[in-house]
Design brief:
Elements: E1 14-18, E2 26-32, E3 35-44, E4 58-65, H1 85-99, E5 111-120, H2 125-146, E6 159-167, E7 170-173, H3 177-180, E8 185-192, E9 197-204, H4 211-237
Parallel strand pairs: 4-5
Antiparallel strand pairs: 1-2, 2-3, 3-5, 6-7, 6-8, 8-9
């Protein structure tokens, strides 16, 4: 039995609440169980310097964890002068995931920055951030279309992410912290609404995992992301 009493292929309770930040062009508060991330999308009327004159826009992301998102207080990274390697990796992953489903020329020479701030962490913060960031980005593009800043929706597809792992010899979906910290294998999958793979991150803790086990995890992830995409659709339709 999993610590959370869930079935092996069962997600935690997931909620996606949009339009939660008054001043942001797009926003979403996403919860994967006890993991909660605030995602806000901000429009800048100019793109990065290296795209000047290209007619193409850019989508990027920043990620941070609030000091008491975990059991003990973590110092704000600004006090050390730079983000940690983990933070840098996660925010690059979020940006890549969003750009994979965005028609960048449709934005024009503008930049959207999606900030993902972890309010509470209980495993799967990066996967929750990606799933909520898509909703925030969608809201930002809807805001832009409503003001005739852009004429078409730049989003070509949904994208969401979920963790999977092998716990006590069993492939399981959407690990919380108790499970993640003891799993023999931990993997994160970023998948589009049409089933395309954007990124796969897999790590063995101890014994290596097999190709067959990887495929088992992929099957779980695809089913989980299909459920997450359905929740995204419900969120943007409400």
């Amino acid at each position: 039995m999993r610590p959370s009493k869930r079935a092996p292929d069962e997600l935690r309770k997931v909620t996606l609440e949009r339009a939660v930040a008054r001043y942001a062009e797009g926003s979403c508060l996403v919860s994967f169980g006890e993991t909660k991330v605030l995602c806000t999308a901000s429009l800048e009327e100019r793109g990065p310097p290296w795209l000047r004159g290209s007619g193409k826009g850019w989508v990027t992301a920043e990620y941070s964890m609030l000091p008491r998102a975990t059991h003990t207080r973590t110092r704000r990274e600004i006090s050390s002068g730079k983000p940690s390697g983990r933070t840098h990796e996660i925010q690059r992953l979020i940006g890549r995931s969003l750009r994979a489903v965005t028609n960048l020329p449709a934005i024009g020479e503008r930049q959207i920055t999606v900030d993902c701030d972890v309010i509470q962490a209980d495993g799967g913060t990066r996967t929750a951030a990606i799933t909520g960031a898509w909703v925030a980005l969608h809201e930002c593009f809807s805001w832009m279309r409503g003001r005739s800043i852009i004429s078409v929706d730049p989003l070509r597809d949904h994208v969401a992410a979920v963790s999977c792992g092998i716990s006590k010899g069993t492939p399981v979906l959407d690990l919380d912290y108790a499970e993640d910290s003891a799993a023999e294998t931990d993997a994160n999958f970023v998948i589009t609404g049409s089933g395309g793979l954007v990124e796969v991150q897999g790590t063995a803790e101890g014994a290596p995992f097999s190709e067959a086990e990887l495929l088992d995890l992929l099957r779980l992830a695809k089913a989980g992301v299909a459920d997450l995409v359905a929740l995204q659709k419900q969120a943007i339709a409400s």
